[in-house]
Amino acid sequence: MRQRSAAVAILRRSTVVLAFLLAPFAGTQAEAQQLPDTATAQPVILQRIQIPSELWDIATSMGDRLTTAGNERLTLTGTLTDKRGNTPVVISTQLPSLFRYEELDGKNKKIVFDGSRATSSAGSLAEDDLNLAETFFSDSAENFLYSLKGGGSLRRIGGRFRTDDGKAPKYAGPYWDVYELEAAVGLRSDR
Question: Which residues are CB-contacts of 54 (< 8 A; sequence separation ≥ 6)?
């Protein structure tokens, strides 16, 4: 049996906020960047009864990707900045369990998760590769909501958290709702 991992999601009211930025977003290479076994992937359809009512607005603010069969794939094209510098990348995910990461810098490094195991074009997967895949797939807003359908346990930490020290009398910044989710991490057997 897989261990379970806890993740904290911080959601801004009426807006889905992710802890990473990848810009610009475009899906122009979706057909060229095929995910493994897309024809046999289970359709992802979230129904209102499957998630807490306070999260339904967040689910629907992402469009119909989570509520209409056939719209499960998300392709991001942009630049990843890390300790190696800037690298052009294409990241494709398809819930419930498909993931592909490809660097477009001439080295063409690829990380693929087919629903049961992760592989890399470099041979063995480094810890950094697994962390990257987990960040873009397991830690996504879509997977956060989908995990609730699969039996994930959700705990509300609180609402209306602010990003300042709490002393500004006319605070105009965003307010955040904070949740803790405990769910299996499909990409990793160690979490």
Answer: 156, 177
The model's pTM is 0.68
Beta strands in 83-169 (DSSP E): 85-94, 98-103, 110-113, 118-120, 153-162
Distance of CA 107 to the CA centre of its chain: 25
**Residue matched to tokens 């803790």:** 180
Residue 94's closest CA among 79, 68, 114?
114
50 phi and psi, to 5 degrees? -85, -15
Which residues 6+ apart lie within 8 Å of 110 measured at CB?
100, 101, 102, 103, 120, 121
Contact in structure between 51 and 59 (CB atoms under 8 Å): yes
CB 143 within 8 A of CB 186: no
CB-side neighbour CA atoms (13 Å) of 46:
31
At 91-134, the pLDDT tens digits run 998 888 889 999 998 888 999 998 888 889 988 888 888 888 88
